[in-house]
Amino acid sequence: MPEFTPLFMDQLHDLFRWRRDVRHFRRDPVPEPVLDELLRVACLAPSVGLSEPWRFVRVDDPRRRDAVRQDFTRCNADALSDRTGADALRYARLKLAGLDDAPHHIAVLSHPEPAQGRGLGRGTMPQTTTWSTVMAIHTFWLAATAVGVGVGWVSIIDPERVRAILDVDPTLELVAYLCVGYPAEVASTPELERRGWERRAPERREWIRR
Ligand SMILES: Cc1cc2nc3c(=O)[nH]c(=O)nc-3n(C[C@H](O)[C@H](O)[C@H](O)COP(=O)(O)O)c2cc1C
């Protein structure tokens, strides 16, 4: 086990603090070896029963990307129409995806019943495969941040329609659609906070104890 120095720990905490959901991207691509390495690191995440249920899909086909973009536009319009008055106005001003500019799109799917892991740990909690995939996404997100690569998670899409657009195994569950590329701006606070939509909860010092 390597020794993690106090300096490293400080930098690690900075990494947690500075990881952002990115919606504004530069258009220049991330070099392939860098992306490959990030996806490899993502696969170091923990998983239920060591099932490694994540499936990363690089979406390169411009027609598929465009179809996903249209799906986002449709879902976002639906989300807006559910709101009224000042709330709708504030929602309409938000930018909730960087699908136009991000040079890379990565869909993350999850196998709900992977043979790997032999079912261990998911008998009573079958959702643990999805959660394992989320762990891999977070690992990817942090590793990307550490090398200056931005990641934006898009969930305002219809998972069934997007799965059909991607033409992947219909038994796979769509967990995330990620925009990836170099950020056009960096910030130490979430964009939703900077735009007055929501604020981080104050640092909690009291924990529930039983
Ligand atoms: C499961 C999940 C889904 C998300 N979906 C979206 C989304 O559809 N659009 C978006 O702009 N941000 C999305 N986000 C990003 C959050 O808005 C963001 O993480 C939050 O505002 C905190 O900002 P930060 O990640 O920069 O700290 C999502 C994040 C998570 C974890």
UniProtKB/TrEMBL annotation:
Oxidoreductase recorded as keyword: yes
Source domain of life: Bacteria
Keyword check for Zinc: no
Enzyme class: oxidoreductase
Gene3D superfamilies, A to Z: NADH Oxidase
EC numbers on record: 1.13.11.79
GO molecular function terms attached to this record: 5,6-dimethylbenzimidazole synthase activity
Domain Nitroreductase: from-to ranges: 17-182
Coiled coil stretches, renumbered: none
InterPro entries for the chain: BluB, Nitroreductase, Nitroreductase-like, Nitroreductase/BluB
NCBIfam families membership: BluB
Protein name as catalogued: 5,6-dimethylbenzimidazole synthase
Record organism: Komagataeibacter melaceti
